[in-house]
Amino acid sequence: MDPATDGEVAAWVASLGLPGLVDIHVHFLPDAMQRKVWEYFDDAERNYGMAWPIQYRASEADRLATLRHLGVVAFAPLVYPHKPGMARWLTEWVLDFAARTPDAVPTATLYPEPEVADYLDAALRAGARCVKAHVQVGAYDPRSELLAPAWGMLAEAGVPVVVHCGHGPLPGDFTGLDVFGEVLRAHPRLTAVLAHAGMPELDVALDLAEQYERVYLDTTMVGVPFTERLTPLPADWTARLAGVGDRVVLGTDFPSIPYPYATQLAAIAGWAHDDRLGEPFLRAVLHDTPARLLAL
Ligand SMILES: [Zn+2]
């Protein structure tokens, strides 16, 4: 039975024979910044044209307890800057967070600025195993010359970068998978995880995954009723997923989601009802593939 509530998640995960969930797309931020993000979502009707009631607005300790209760055994806490001069200290903050949180994988972030190679190199040396790039919030061009050394460094290190480069929930100056596709053309060995499976361009994200063997899709907000209204899955979604089934990874956007965590899992479980996917697909998405990507 697919999980209908958060209370059912841990037993469902165990029934699949998994030791737990590995979530590659979770957000933790310094408290003051987290409050500002939630204030933005509280104004979502004006910002996005729809209400966005945050499901897990709680203290950091309570949010960590919730993840553990759900059976999340490891997660990538992702941070991202919206202007220059932020990425270094955010990276330092999240590395410190991961150092004091055993189930958090050390991560880093980046921004097109002259010092990016310096702080990214330091973060990789400090053990960062995942990087977040937010093209929409950062409003930068991922093809920027300033970022070329960073993409090269990540390709060389084999460290995955979770990239929000799609037009959802709002288009940005440089969003669009065609734009990030140019980065992949220049850095074909980059391990890139297309956040939200590239929403709303799910079909183009699948094209890129078929074209580049190191391109992955994360499930964040994909196929849940909240987004299905605006971005319905393509009719051939599960058929095409079968072709790249070992490059789909669990992501959720916890805690700032407008529905329970179980809703995302139920959506993924629904895809697995297609016989071409089934339980092997679930085990890969929910645990094995993200565990491999995050070098657990
Ligand atoms: Zn996110």
TrEMBL record:
It holds the Pfam family Amidohydro_2. The keyword Lyase applies. Residues 22-295 form the Amidohydrolase-related domain. The keyword Oxidoreductase does not apply. Keywords: Lyase. Transmembrane segments: none annotated. CDD domains: metallo-dependent_hydrolases. PANTHER family: 2-AMINO-3-CARBOXYLMUCONATE-6-SEMIALDEHYDE DECARBOXYLASE, ISO-OROTATE DECARBOXYLASE (EUROFUNG). This is Amidohydrolase. It comes from Actinokineospora xionganensis.
